[in-house]
Amino acid sequence: MAEYKEIHGTKIRNYTTNPDNPITGEVWYNETDNVLKFQYPTVTTVGSWRTGNSLNTARYAAAAKGTQDAALAFGGYSTTYAANTETYNGTNWTAVNAMNTGRSSVVGAGTNTAALAFSGDAPPQSALTESWNGTNWTEVNDLGTARYSASGFGATNTASICAGGWAPGYSALTELWNGTNWTEVNDLNAGRYGLGGVGTSPAGLTTGGTTGSITANTELWNGTNWTEVNNLTTARQSMGSAGTQPAALVYGGHPGSGQTNKTEEWNGTNWTEQNDLVTSRDQIAGTGTTTAALAVGGQPPTMGTTEEWTGPGQPVGAFSSAPSMNTARRNMGAVGTSTAALGYGGRAPNKANTEEYNGTSWTEKNDLNSARHSMASSGTTTSALSIGGENGGYTNIVEEWNGTNWTEIADLTTTRAEGGGAGANAEAALVFGGASPAGVFANTESFNGTNWTEVNNLNQARYQMNTGLGKTSTAALASGGRNPGVLANTEIWNGTNWTAGNVLNTARVVAAGQTGTSTSAIVAGGYTTTNVAFTEEWNGVSWQEVADLSTATSAAGGAATDNTSALIFGGNDGSDTTATEEWSSTSTTTKTVSTD
């Protein structure tokens, strides 16, 4: 057996308390507590759903096959019986060649490059089978019994199972596809339709559906016979399903009244409730595994919504205390990264103070020429802009920071405060939204180092937004804000236009911004009807709740390159504060070694 030193390269060492940067798996002796300790990465213990980009054609009762980052969706019902086919690359859906026959309540088997589509409602119930070769659909031999809302599964387009469905009547019929023909094999124990199914032709699972009443029944297929096993926790029909036998997920569906977002996991013996879908729905297309699944489309209303399931074992982020600022303030300008940040201006009263963070401490720098608060910001610790704001009245003053001093430059076209800002440096910036006594603005202005030019407006006029996100003037993010109520809206700037994106989970104003890019960011804290500590992480498509700030804070400054590390500083936590917190998308847990 290998000794500890051979594995970790050191002997067990003594420390007064704990080492500053222990190696993962390292064991040490804490002399203060008189115990052995070790540290390991903190990871999630359960999976979760997150919104992805939608189908190009919204629909329900479609089928999906493949993996989370290489999937195929086909058929369904939109405004008519759909033949549409789309492929998914883990980010976007792309329309490809359509099926020969449009139909809903279709099922399938295989992968995104070798799939089989069979049964469905054409109408009426259909026996049609089509094979997909990665480019085109080809009609092949029909099922023996026409049906829709059946259970379909199989690892390839040459070995598949079709079980149950409406034929008409609640069917128990099972057919096996061998790559050429369908053959009737042993029936389900209970005829039903709207059931979920996963697996391969020699080892599968069907669950749920309706026999005239909604059922939770689960049956296993061993290649010859069906066997009843433990039921779902929540009876339902028309759900999504993913995985294999013995590791499956079912999610959403119709439980008898309305739609559900419940997710359950099968471990080969029992079903266990997991984290819910973001959106309740039924007639979902599902595919993937218990660690990486997709929920695609559904209703009501007819939707193209895609959600991605990620299983347990993912890194857990956390905030930790960092050195405090010298001057307490809120509503300041802020730019930079988690190790090189700049905070300037703020209130109350109006402040001109500038402070720089070098990863270790905050240092006072030369002041703004015009004390103010609620300005938009862009740039870095060596090249930044302070844009507009309030200094007793609303202003259009712009000042440029060169790493040492602030200098007044060309004014904004539209006087405003509480807008958002983005930009790589003082020579290329964007300001958007905001307010003044003249009203609430959707106006966007672009700066080329000399002049401000009006460009296309936000779709939603707003102010008190989350101070803007973006490290260039051609790729920015606007989230949250007020007009007149508190907003959750997100908009994405592509250098020409603003496009609506997925909304925040918690609507809020004055959260810390300047904390990432249009594809990787966080927002932290803010105000709803009170200060909040909520933090959300943006992956370029959707927001997901992560670990909270240590202290509920609004109107703080923020700085980050992306969503993996960030600095949140100042703000108001009941009173104006100097507190600084540092975000890391990974964290560790320290445990005591039991010697009992």
Care to give the gist of this entry?
The chain folds into three domains: 4-41, no CATH class; 48-310, Kelch-type beta propeller (Neuraminidase); 323-584, Neuraminidase, CATH 2.120.10. It is 1% helix and 41% strand. The chain has 596 residues and is an all-beta fold.
List the helices and strands and how they pair.
Elements: H1 4-8, E1 13-15, E2 27-30, E3 35-41, E4 48-52, E5 63-67, E6 70-74, E7 85-88, E8 93-96, E9 107-110, E10 115-118, E11 129-132, E12 137-140, E13 151-156, E14 159-163, E15 174-177, E16 182-185, E17 196-200, E18 203-207, E19 218-221, E20 226-229, E21 240-243, E22 248-251, E23 263-266, E24 271-274, E25 285-288, E26 292-298, E27 303-310, E28 318-322, E29 333-336, E30 341-344, E31 354-357, E32 362-365, E33 376-379, E34 384-390, E35 394-401, E36 406-409, E37 420-425, E38 428-432, E39 435-436, E40 439-440, E41 444-447, E42 452-455, E43 469-472, E44 475-479, E45 490-493, E46 498-501, E47 521-524, E48 535-538, E49 543-546, E50 557-562, E51 565-569, E52 580-584, E53 588-592
Parallel strand pairs: 1-2
Antiparallel strand pairs: 2-3, 3-53, 4-27, 5-6, 6-7, 7-8, 9-10, 10-11, 11-12, 13-14, 14-15, 15-16, 17-18, 18-19, 19-20, 21-22, 22-23, 23-24, 25-26, 26-27, 28-52, 29-30, 30-31, 31-32, 33-34, 34-35, 35-36, 37-38, 38-41, 39-40, 41-42, 43-44, 44-45, 45-46, 47-48, 48-49, 50-51, 51-52
